[in-house]
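Lab notebook: predicted structure, single chain.

Context: the supervisor wants predicted structures on file for every construct in the current expression panel, including those that have not yet been purified. This is the next one on the list. No modifications to the sequence; it matches the entry in the shared construct table.
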Amino acid sequence: MSETNRLEQAFRAFIVALFSEEKFRIFEVTGSRDRGFDLMVANPKSQKAVVEIKLFRTRIVSRGNLINAVAQLDKARELMGVDKGILIISSSLAIPIVDTGSTEIWDMKKLGERASRHPGLIPLFESLSRELSSSLPISDSDIHSYSIFGDAITGEPQPPSSEAVQAGAKLENELRAVVPGKKGARDLETRGYEALKYVFRDDLSNWSQQKVTDGGISRYDAIARISSSHDFWQSILRFFHSWYVIFEFKNNAELIKQGQIYTTEKYLFAGAMRLVAFIISRKGADKNALAATRGAVRESGKLIINLSLDDIYKMLRMKDEGDDANAILLDILDDMLMRLER
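Prediction complete. Output recorded below exactly as produced.
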């Protein structure tokens, strides 16, 4: 079980316990996840609400993810014929949002206030808070940085259209239509580039395709600059001293091999604050290629993350639903570093 999955289960268990302590009734609804929500509850006044629980492994959640999540929950609310939605997030809501319609947002601050009314829940909340990035204090500089690099907007947000919310599904279908091998290589670069810009629209900026180094020797498929307050990308800035990330697309029908890792490693250069690369391939990397990525971290501090198309499909769906797609990257990084040998 990944760290994200474990935290999701623990966070959900806490929410269920909190609703129980607050005298909410919880209804079992068959196929609730397929309908866009986690729980249906009724408060002590018998007013029903659909509940969506979102685990964001970052202190400050992006406004774009919140808008998508509220829009998805609003659809579920209408489908189930209830008047209210409750969106519960594991981050702190440090973004100016004036009105979310029929949906309440409970962030970690509000959850802490509610848990404090029930002494039996306080140790559980404190334990969970220590494990979540959202438990870290948000400083004035964090919010100032987010205002510069993020998409915080004052005033009432306009909900996206259903077409916009499902942009990831459209991009996934286009990627699935790409044929493997040399014939579809350019198509994978084009479709993959658009998919990455959608998934990381709150995290990366200054995108550029087909970038050639000054000497004309190397050409990488895409490059972007980190402009995110998310804990994953802040870790890349802080610990890998990389302001830019490179993306390479491999349309091989089989797992990529270590030679392709070594080629990508040559593009990474500390002097240019360019020490992180993502390789996107159809099926991912074989064991020798994965060993080569660990060697690059161990020997030269260069981080190369392998993503399969299945990973990209999952991230696109998560983005559509307002989930934290960066959690997948955190799990991959955790696994790589915990396996790293001397």
